[in-house]
Amino acid sequence: MTKRINAMNNRFFRLSIWTCTLVLMVMLQAACSTKGDDPRPDTQPPDEQPGPAILKEKAAFGMGAAIKTAHLTELAYANTVKNHFSQVTAEWEMKMELIWSSASGYNWNNADRIVDFASDNGLEVHGHTLVWYKSFPGWFKNAAYDSIAFEDHVKSYIQTTVGRYKGRVKSWDVANEIFNDNGTLRSTDCPVFATFKDPIGFYGRCFEYAHEADPEARLFYNDYSVVLASAKRSAIKRMVSRFKNEGIPIHGIGDQFHYRVTTDKSTIKNGLTDMASTGLLIHLSELDIIVNVLQSESYAFTQAEAQKQADMYRFIVESYESLPDNQKFAITTWGVTDKYTWLTDYWHAKEYPLLFDQNYQEKEAYRGFLAGLKND
Fold it and tell me: Which residues of the chain have pLDDT under 70?
């Protein structure tokens, strides 16, 4: 009887070991099969890691857009700004004539809305613009102030405006478009030229007034065709040298970059390099690319046209990326979507200059911009 029990125990022991081994083998096989069939490996080689596909994530500098408050109530518009950009500029509503309602009166409604929108969504604000010959309000021009009263009022405006947004607006275009393409000072319809014997001296003091109101804000001079018009660029460089010699705070230069798919690329490249020779921050401040260069009623924005635009965007971004890293401030597109662009009024109704189409879809231009950015 004892032998029979011992034999049964031995068979049960061997059966238990065999069963456990079989279960363990099945579990291991299942684990290996699951891992082998998983289409998502735990790690990817560095060169296979997907890079960011959003401008503000890939750009190592500010990625800006000019915006209008009237469009912020449109959800797709607001979301596009929040999702793709890191910086905003008021396309119109922070200019002098929109804010300065009288000698002592200010209308902050829309400017506040832009700054609040930026603050609520983690975006920086570039202020545009404190002094521009086209934006002096009518009441100011009609007052016919002498140079002393003129400057006192402008100083008050600058310091009130910059002071209101101290710490919230990180940078300002202090002066805008004061030179002609041939390098002479703008005189037509320019109250500054008509009032001061030394207009450059006045503009320099405007930089000082802004700096006094917010010593941390970066201050820019902004103009168009800077990289194309060599005489204008030389005049700007002379002004920068004078400001530096006189201790006037100027931190950067903006070129608006309202260019076309046919604009000469070598001129852009060489002009941008020369612009950077000042050592200042460089801002591509109002970028858009015209495609309907002949202003044709029969123009069609075909895939081939879209690719031309994408190639120009890529070239511009690559040229900007070639500048010293410490001089790259931001690239700002003048608008968000082809649905709302100043060029459909100023240039032609059939114009498609921006990175997003009328339905807020990324265009080839967007992908061209992304391709131009460094992959650091």
Answer: 1-52, 376
CA-to-CA distance for 17 and 217, rounded, in angstroms? 77
pLDDT at 52: 53
pTM (2 d.p.): 0.86
In this structure, how many other beta carbons lie within 10 angstroms of the beta carbon of residue 12?
10
- pLDDT one-digit tens code per residue, 324-347: 999 999 999 999 999 999 999 999
Q: Which residues contact 150 (CB under 8 A, 6 or more apart)?
A: 191, 195, 196
Using a 10 angstrom Cβ sphere, with 0-12 exposed, 13-18 middle and 19 or more buried, the burial of residue 70 is middle
Q: Under a CB-based contact definition with an 8 Å cutoff, are residues 232 and 225 in contact?
A: yes
Give me the pLDDT at residue 27, please: 42
Instruction: Give the tokens for residue 151.
Output: 């400057």
Please give the positions annotated as active site: 177, 286
128 close to 89: Cβ distance less than 8 angstroms: yes
Angle at 344 (CA atoms; ends 174, 56), nearest 5 degrees: 55
- Residue pair 257/285 in contact (Cβ under 8 Å)? The answer is yes
Identify whether the C-beta of residue 162 lies closer than 8 Å to the C-beta of residue 125. no
